[in-house]
Amino acid sequence: MINELMIDIETSGNKPGCKVLSLGAFGFDKDGNQVEFYRRFDTKSQIAQGLFDNEETMSWWNRQGKEAFKEAFGGDTDPIQGIADFKQWVMQNFKTGKFDKFSVWSCGIDFDFPILNRFFEAYGFRGCPWLYYTQRDYRTLKNLFPIIKQSEGNVSKHCAIEDAKAQMRGLRAFYSLTKD
Hints:
44% of the residues lie in helices and 17% in strands.
């Protein structure tokens, strides 16, 4: 695998404009090397940007256990710095241009990407650092091919970097199924 990226976010809601708690990204860079990125964001500063919590999501987080809650809500990274770091990391590690073979995956094309775009824009950034048509939906693949879910092996649920790594293991299993 070359030039493939898997992202995962943890949030306090399920719609664009909710707070982003953490961002994990794991992939195979333009040279095929494994690279990863993880930031846990300060949520207090997100209120001033108009980002919100969803009551139902917050109730769900309260049922996930103390460790998961602490991991999700214990971030101290300034969102502006974290977003800048992420964009720089993507540009250093991946070729994302119009004619590059690049794919960025998330578990649900209608969740991570729109929420991330809104989060970036709230802090004055121009959205995600890739072209919209390079976005891929990992959730659809794992629902169509159950072997993918079995290959994930994630032991730490609701941690964005661990979820991204697990989903990439599933994607690699899918690719191994489709090799000629």
